Amino acid sequence: MDLNKKLIALTGCFWLISCLHPSQPGEGSRPVLTQPIFRSDVAVWVDYTNTLDGMAPKDLKSEYERLRRIADRAWDDELRLSLTSCVQSQKLKNYQKASEIIAQAAGKIQGNTDLRSWLRFYSQQVSVLAQMDRELTEEKRLRSELEKKLKALSDIERDISERSKSPGMTHP
Predict the structure, then answer these.
(1) Distance between CA atoms of 90 and 171, rounded to whole angstroms?
(2) Alpha carbon distances (Å) from 109 to 33, 46, 58, 163
(3) Against a cut of 0.85, is the pTM above it?
């Protein structure tokens, strides 16, 4: 299973846990997107995000451009645009931007605590993915260094072995 799909599935699990402890809608100065309850099923948004994650970069860009051109976007179009932008940013390994986009989208959702909770968890998981990617990059760097050192040691061992076999060498 792809790491992003695991991430999305994990956020869905966290969302289910959050249902046991629902939060109160927060007050803030951000614009609020109101939405009817029948269009806010979290599973629909998880599926949409998985679909985006499976898209080729060209198709993902086309979806983003299509959503961006909508003149009077409803709350669900805004959320689709945010999710599309987030997935694009993740594919470019710009995890900070992806996390910020989703956190902003979560802040704009009013009334649907389940969806807002899932978006916040998704934002947190993108941050975790960023940390994992940094750790993986560091591990690759260390592995490369160790491989170079091992090759250097092998070369030294081969040189010593060749010198000890040369006819001009006498052993005490």
Answers:
(1) 62
(2) 5, 16, 29, 74
(3) no
Residue 23, φ and ψ in degrees, nearest 5: -100, 160
Q: Which residue has the higher pLDDT, 25 or 17?
A: 17
Over 70: is that where the pLDDT of 2 sits?
no
Rounded Cα–Cα distance for residues 107 and 168 (Å): 79
CB 118 within 8 A of CB 15: yes
Query: What is the rounded CA–CA span in Å between residue 139 and residue 152?
Result: 20
Tokens of 34: 């109101």
DSSP 22-33: PPPPPP-SS--B
Residue 33: strand pairing partners: 109
User: Tokens representing 27?
Assistant: 């007050």
CB 129 within 8 A of CB 102: no
Structure tokens at 5: 């799909």
Closest CA to 115 of 25, 27, 31: 25
Count of H helices and E strands in the chain? 6, 0
